[in-house]
Design brief:
Elements (H helix, E strand, L loop, with lengths): L15 H10 L5 H6 L1 E6 L5 E7 L8 E5 L9 H12 L3 E5 L20 H12 L7 E6 L1 H15 L5 E7 L5 H10 L1 H21 L7 H4 L4 H12 L5 H6 L5 H5 L5 E6 L20 E6 L8 E2 L4 E2 L1 H9 L1
Parallel strand pairs: 3-4, 3-5, 5-6, 6-7, 7-8
Antiparallel strand pairs: 1-2, 2-4, 9-10
Helix pairs in contact: 3-12, 4-5
């Protein structure tokens, strides 16, 4: 990353809720990325099927970037399209992975999505790395995908992928408990994520009507209660906090890093508090932490004129 780059948007674009909501509501026309993308279905060693979209460079590539979306997002989300287009035009091949049950893939696997399922995402990363094994595989994850990206970097330190490059987590999920509580404290974000999760559960139930009945989760009043019911009925954990502990990003994990990792987040993020990153400071020479004063949750959008700040810093960082 260039030395200490700062995201300084126009004063009218600095509100953290504007940043967060705009990046979720806006659509992005990724002309070059989508024209080059081809759909793939990966099958992991455990038999899990995951859908992805791969856009290889037509000639020489700077490497492949694995993009991981946030919770209840998918490969078509604004940030996935915008980042993918910027990286593709900068000379990188782009591999956009849909996590299990995301992007309309509820019928691909009988088992449900859970955020602790790191092994299948690591297997997908291995397969993405083999698409161009002579060049590096970089991993860029956003929100929940950022938490997956940091855990992939940790897993790489235990079981290396030979051409694994740099990892970037954008507003990455560190502590799922604090994030879930933050969602539920805000009537707007609670309603938004509860609605999306209810819709996703309804699609999963429709795909496997003899296996699932999510009526208790769908009727729950908030995300924490939904999680408690879901874990009690569909996961091998005692409760939500036990489940959260199995995908929390810890200082011990980050201290074990074997390659470069950069975290880019915002001090005004309304969903993932900046204080979650304090325990990660100075735990590893491989970890760089950039906390911007503005940006909201996965925003980093400027207006007058429109620009997407991440597309200014990411290609340079990955080079």
């Amino acid at each position: 990353m260039p030395p200490d780059p700062k995201f300084a948007p126009h004063p009218l674009a600095r509100n953290r809720h504007f940043q967060t909501i705009y990046s979720s509501a806006r659509r992005f026309s990724a002309v070059a990325l989508n024209a080059a993308s081809r759909e793939m279905t990966l099958t992991t060693g455990a038999g899990v099927r995951l859908r992805a979209f791969y856009a290889p460079q037509p000639e020489s590539s700077r490497g492949t970037v694995l993009l991981l979306h946030g919770w209840l997002g998918d490969s078509r989300a604004f940030y996935m399209q915008a980042l993918g287009e910027g990286l593709f035009r900068a000379g990188f091949s782009v591999f956009r992975l849909n996590l299990r049950d995301h992007g309309g893939t509820e019928a691909l696997n009988p088992g449900t999505f859970r955020s602790d399922r790191l092994a299948e995402v690591f297997d997908a990363a291995r397969q993405a790395a083999q698409l161009d094994p002579a060049r590096p595989l970089h991993v860029v994850g956003i929100s929940l995908g950022g938490g997956f990206a940091l855990r992939l970097a940790w897993q790489h330190s235990q079981t290396p992928i030979p051409n694994f490059g740099r990892t970037v987590g954008i507003c990455p999920l560190i502590d799922p408990l604090t994030a879930t509580l933050a969602l539920d404290r805000s009537p707007f974000y609670r309603r938004y994520f509860r609605r999306k999760w209810r819709q996703a559960l309804a699609r999963k139930q429709a795909a496997f009507p003899n296996r699932y009945n999510f009526a208790p989760e769908i009727s729950a009043p908030d995300c924490m209660t939904m999680t408690e019911i879901f874990i009690r009925n569909h996961a091998p954990y005692a409760n939500a906090r036990d489940y959260f502990a199995h995908y929390t990003v810890t200082p011990v994990m980050m201290a074990a890093l074997a390659g470069p990792v950069t975290i880019i987040t915002a001090d005004d993020d309304p969903i993932i508090p900046a204080s979650d990153f304090t325990p990660l400071r100075d735990v590893s020479p491989h970890l760089t932490l950039s906390i911007q004063p503005f940006g909201g949750h996965v925003g980093f959008i400027d207006l007058f004129p429109f620009r997407y700040w991440l597309n200014e810093v990411l290609p340079e960082l990955l080079r």
